[in-house]
Amino acid sequence: MTAPTGERDELVIAGDEDVVRVRQVVRGFALRAKLSLVDQTKLVTAASELARNAVNYGGGGQAVVELVGNGRRVGVRARFADDGPGISDVELALTDGWTSGSGLGLGLSGARRLVDEFELETEVGRGTAVTITKWAR
Amino acid sequence: MDRIPILKIGQVLLVSIQIDLQDQSVLALQEDLAEQISATGAHGVIIDISAVEIVDSFIGRMFATIAATSRLFDADTVVVGMRPAVAITLVELGLTLGQVRTALNLEKGLAILGKLAAERELAEGLDDLDEPVQANS
Amino acid sequence: MSVDAGDTDSLAVLLSKDADVLIARWVALTSAPLRGKVSEAELTRECRELFDTLVAAVSTGSRDFQDPAFVEVRAALEELSRNRARLGFTPSETVVGVFALKRAMLETSGQRTGDTGLREVIEFTLLLDTLGLWTFECYARAREEVIAQQAEQLLELTTPVVRLWDGVLAVPLVGTLDSARTQVVMEKLLEALVETGAEQAIVDITGVLAVDTQVAQHLLKTVMAARLMGAECTISGIRPQIAQTIVELGIEFGDITTKASLADALLYAMRRSGVDVVRKRAQVG
């Protein structure tokens, strides 16, 4: 029922500076979707966490950001995909404070709390893709 | 990568973050600050984030790290000017700032550091001349 | 043979001929855009009822929807749209069933009459329907926007941030707290803290009748966010019932400062900002 409205952007996330670029692009889309300031901040923060995850744990990947609509509301959807090792225990990975690296373990679980829709696809050895959506109130 | 400048005003080191922080800049700032505190013997650090639009878990952790490091040099850290949207997002993200003190603006941050320095001098008994001894209320 | 030839029977006859084929097609066309939201059996019942009342009305020779002959048709349509609206259908999804009858007639007209004049008329009216539908959708959307805007304005109106003392702000909340409103309060209060530099905030919920888990969570988050910003937030006026709810829901209020009344909270906030209140000794005389 949700359809892309045509505006979309694709970015390669390979390193540190790309995380910043993802934040800026997502912020631009959030502005166009007229998200409230708090919702913009939440979405950009979630995107930042996920982009960093893709760099740190997935060895880089790509981000697709687009404007979406469901007939009533507009929103921003962002998908972060990497070809990394994947996640073997999704439940565990979504637990606050759990980390496979040196982070705080708030990336995935925190990002999920910051958005309206959160979808995680992962396969061990194949990679991880996280899709998040935030709707304008 | 951009390096964040550190200003010294009296016994206080002031860091004003005006850019969208890259992870490398965050790490560099932590190192630079540790060096500066050690070199100057400053009693306080103020991190002004009034221009910062997002704080994710990585940047949030920097505050806690800086605070913990400066404690080792007997200095206090105050984060000032956090925007409401950023604060709401951090709460949702589940991030706590540990021993970091916070203040609404630079002026109040300086006041907190001043008070803490006075208390410390009092506790260390170094003050026998100009400060009247106060009963603890 | 034209649709509005004034021949009382022509349309009714046209409709009644092979009625079952027509209704079957009608149901199929109606159900497609609804994507299973209504069962086939339910639709068939609705269509059959509407069809029968429609044929009955048309047989009287009347083509005026306001005519008493159409009383039953109007009632059937009203019931249908009410049900759809309550179930959250869009205007289009609601009206589609009515318009689908025309397409069903068009599609079955070849085998039924072979009349090309009728075909053209129906094709044109189909086009007009689409235009009408679209207009209706736009209208409804605009109305919804107006309602949403008013709701937002109402939110703004009902959540004033007031200054109680130098450096002490308060939001007196009255009425029913829902998640959206609590969020608006939270944002407004925090913004006011930045603007005024006030370090003490009070959220007074004396006038709040009930809180649910979500609202209580939002209040907690407000307090935590204020703390992150370098301010202190006190919650005052928790009614006994609400206190009970909070305990029963197992919500952890932790180290958050709560005061029984707004007066207590104000006194606390003033003391925290370095002001002490002393009662003047009564003057003798």
From TrEMBL, chain A:
Keywords attached to this entry: Kinase, Transferase
GO terms for MF: protein serine/threonine kinase activity
Pfam family, one: HATPase_c
Protein's UniProt keywords contain Nucleotide-binding: no
EC numbers, comma separated: 2.7.11.1
Histidine kinase/HSP90-like ATPase domain segment(s): 38-137
Keyword Transferase: yes
Classification via InterPro entries: HATPase_C_sf, HATPase_dom
Protein's name in the database: Serine/threonine-protein kinase RsbT
TrEMBL record, chain B:
Annotated coiled-coil segments of the chain: none
Domain (STAS) ranges: 2-113
PROSITE patterns with a match to the protein in the record: STAS
Pfam families, sorted: STAS (PF01740)
Gene3D superfamilies: STAS domain (3.30.750.24)
Organism superkingdom: Bacteria
Xref: InterPro entries: Bact_StressResp_Reg (IPR051932), STAS_dom (IPR002645), STAS_dom_sf (IPR036513)
Protein name: STAS domain-containing protein
Source organism: Kutzneria albida DSM 43870
Automatic annotation (TrEMBL), chain C:
Domain of life: Bacteria
Matching SUPFAM superfamilies: SpoIIaa-like (SSF52091)
InterPro entries, alphabetized: Bact_StressResp_Reg (IPR051932), RsbRD_N_dom (IPR025751), STAS_dom (IPR002645), STAS_dom_sf (IPR036513)
Pfam family, one: RsbRD_N
Keyword Phosphoprotein: yes
STAS domain ranges (all copies): 158-269
PROSITE patterns reported for this sequence: STAS
Entry keywords, A to Z: Phosphoprotein
Gene3D superfamilies: STAS domain
Name of the featured protein: STAS domain-containing protein
Naturally occurring in which organism (per UniProt): Kutzneria albida DSM 43870
